[in-house]
């Protein structure tokens, strides 16, 4: 067989970053040029938000939630050299394989997780109600649809980036078919990404106001020597509807249903115009991070007001140290 010529390996570009504004003591601060994507970013879409990005072969690739002009959310692929300016396909991702029944319907709130040589997309898929769709790719060209992970209704399925106790592991949030006035985070494991079980309760919506209604996992957890750093969304009810903010917790490395710590307040609340105004006002919805393992810088990608993709920054070790001031340890 003829050998293909070796492809030149591209160096992975630095993650986006801007330093904490002078004088600020915030644990998380925003990218000054936010939002990075928004309405009409591609011709078919009326809004792009709640999207996930990941480094891939010297570039960045993203799976974007694009709400089409007919109102239906779909998943679209995008590429970027700097993870800030994105070229997004106007056609939704086409999945192969899986049961034909799983291929239709809407798709929203994607997360992307690398496990070894495989990349997995998990998202909110339509199967007689919202549930967790799963697809696998190695090249971001072909996407193989796997079985849905759970029964409806479920949202916010987030994989861990390695097997735990030899099993694939996922966080999810059982819900209802509507806007869900409740919701806790659960842990499940699977030997093969098809059969899921050993379900464990992780965290409940808080007794505190800002997350009193429901919580849901946000970005793929970041492994640290103190535990899994989990950024999540917490929701409160106001006289004008739900308000989505961002929280942070630390889960045990080998038994992630054990919460080691959880900051009692939000680390980012809707505050600026692009977070408080849009298709759904007052939404900050984290879906992904880029992480520099060497120095611990984190770029957080979050949906803003169900309209834009925005970016915020934090230091991993500062977040972990802060979380450990609020030990839980059940
Ligand atoms: C949730 C999800 C998210 C959305 C949020 C606020 O239930 O549908 O996609 O960002 O509501 O509208």
From TrEMBL:
Q: Which residues form the signal peptide?
A: none
An example of a Pfam family matching this protein is Glyco_hydro_130
Keywords of the record:
Glycosyltransferase, Transferase
User: Taxonomically, which superkingdom?
Assistant: Bacteria
Region of interest (Disordered), residue spans: 1-21
For this chain, one GO molecular function annotation is: glycosyltransferase activity
Would the keyword Lyase be found if you checked this record's keyword annotation? no
Q: Which family does it belong to?
A: Belongs to the glycosyl hydrolase 130 family.
Protein name, per record: Beta-1,4-mannooligosaccharide/beta-1,4-mannosyl-N-acetylglucosamine phosphorylase
